Amino acid sequence: MEPWALCTPEIVPLLRPHPPVVGKVTHHSIELYWDLEKREKRQGPQEQWLRFSIEEEDPKMHNYGVIYTGYATKHVVEGLEPRTLYRFRLKVTSPSGEYEYSPVVSVATTREPISSEHFHRAVNVNDEDLLLRILEGGHVMVDVPNKFGFTALMVAAQKGYTRLVKILISNGTDVNLKNGSGKDSLMLACYAGHLDVVKYLRKHGASWDARDLGGCTALHWAADGGHCPVIDWMIKDGCEVDVVDTGSGWTPLMRVSAVTGSQKVASLLIEAGADVNVRDKDGKTPLMVAVLNNHEQLVQLLLDKGADATVKNEFGKGVLEMARVFDRQNVLSLLEERKKKMPRKSSVH
């Protein structure tokens, strides 16, 4: 027989317990704790301990439902609504079945914290009021990236939300930050063709010289985007026209020859001084690249602007051979037509 079984525990009348003490409160949880054990030492088997229940009021029915029962002296109520008032009471039951209720405690959950997710959502949907409210709250770092590594400024610049761009810049965002592929807000705005944003970013310290991970500048991206008003303004703003990327050694004009084949963009670049006979790392010229990509009108333009049709690549192949090998029929006839018209070099008398 266990020694404790010989001592009959004193029957202590149950006193009305104090209400549970409120611990940490968030927008979706409330911590409650109580400790009657300072008076009631826990001895012997559990069935001789006091048992605790936490009951929560149903505000519509005004009755109480048990949300916890057991021997612990702490409980965290979870899954609650933000900014809502909840009422709880503690029920203490003795081993003999007597019970007493504590007075009720009322606790309100907190306001939902405005996180970076809300911040980025406001930018995504162009919600100026919400963005201002969040920034005024001061709980969000203005440069916090979204899950794709874009800052709010990058998103606003890409989408052309000029007013949001202005708000973000006035709140101290860093215009020169880059995303995972090394693109900054200026490159994204140039590619997307948002001239107002481009101008504003330039005014606030964005640089034409920044490069992404492939060594491309804003002008390379603008050439891909094909927005002539942006390209025209960039050139007038002093952007370098024949800047070379670090990957292929391509200028923006080479990008046009490779990607879009846009005559209008190529014209702007050539008028601004782009070299029509520039060579990339493999010795290819814009004309060769335009031929290989079957950009017929661009081939015509490059020839009109002085592209050398007699150049050879590193394997000694010229543009005519390239056009034949790749069966570029229209380009081929265009090149042959041009060849016939080329003035024969007059022999010196």
UniProtKB/TrEMBL annotation:
InterPro entries: Ankyrin_rpt (IPR002110), Ankyrin_rpt-contain_sf (IPR036770), FN3_dom (IPR003961), FN3_sf (IPR036116), Ig-like_fold (IPR013783). Pfam families: Ank_2. SMART domains: ANK. Residues 16-113 form the Fibronectin type-III domain. ANK repeats lie at residues 148-180, 181-213, 214-246, 248-281, 282-314. Its main location: cytoplasm. It comes from the Eukaryota. SUPFAM superfamilies: Ankyrin repeat (SSF48403), Fibronectin type III (SSF49265). CDD domains: FN3. One of its GO terms (biological process) is positive regulation of DNA-templated transcription. One of its GO terms (cellular component) is cytosol. Transmembrane segments: none annotated. Keywords: ANK repeat, Cell projection, Cytoplasm, Cytoskeleton, Nucleus, Repeat, Ubl conjugation. It is found in: Cytoplasm, Cytoskeleton, Cilium basal body; Cytoplasm, Cytosol; Nucleus. Interacts with COPS5; regulates the phosphorylation of JUN and the transcriptional activity of AP-1. Interacts with RYBP; may prevent the ubiquitin-mediated proteasomal degradation of FANK1. PANTHER family: FIBRONECTIN TYPE 3 AND ANKYRIN REPEAT DOMAINS PROTEIN 1. Through the activation of JUN and AP-1-mediated transcription, may regulate apoptosis. This is Fibronectin type 3 and ankyrin repeat domains 1 protein. It comes from Rattus norvegicus.
